[in-house]
């Protein structure tokens, strides 16, 4: 049977609903009763962790690349702001 819309809204807005939901995620018996949700929750958690790792790796690689470009530019007598602007805009002044 469907719940009355007002009751559904009360359930959604009740903080206790979310606390119970999180508590269930850490209960092994819950996953024995709902193996499909165990798979979905594990997958979503791995996706979140993977996204964080990907962002850290991309930021690290980008910073290393910019630092290498600035170091190389300085070795050839090019001002750092020209390199930074070129990396930001994709345009090199004078070309």
Structure description:
This protein is mainly alpha-helical and 95 residues long. It contains 5 helices and no strands. It has helices at 5-13, 15-25, 28-33, 35-75, 80-89. Helix 4 (35-75) packs across helix 5 (80-89). The N and C termini lie far apart (71 Å).
Give a short overview.
By secondary structure, the chain is mostly helical.
Characterize the main sheet. Answer: none
Proportion of strand residues: under 5%
* Secondary-structure element order, N to C: HHHHH
Number of strands: 0
Structural class: mainly alpha
Q: What ranges have pLDDT less than 50 throughout 5 or more consecutive residues?
A: none
Q: Determine the mean pLDDT.
A: 86
The portion of residues assigned to helices is over 70%
**Helical segment count:** 5
Shape: elongated
Compute the CA-based radius of gyration.
26 Å
**What gap, in angstroms, lies between the N and C termini?**
71 Å
Write the layout of secondary structure elements.
Blueprint: H1 5-13, H2 15-25, H3 28-33, H4 35-75, H5 80-89
Tag the structure with descriptive keywords.
95 residues; mainly alpha; elongated
């Amino acid at each position: 049977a469907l719940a009355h819309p007002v009751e559904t809204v009360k359930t959604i807005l009740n903080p206790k609903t979310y606390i119970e939901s999180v508590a269930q995620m850490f209960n092994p018996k819950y996953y024995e009763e709902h193996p499909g949700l165990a798979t979905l929750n594990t997958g979503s958690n791995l996706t979140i962790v993977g996204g964080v790792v990907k962002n850290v790796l991309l930021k690290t690689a980008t910073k290393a690349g910019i630092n290498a470009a600035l170091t190389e530019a300085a070795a050839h007598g090019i001002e750092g702001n020209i390199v930074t602007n070129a990396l930001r805009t994709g345009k090199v002044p004078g070309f």
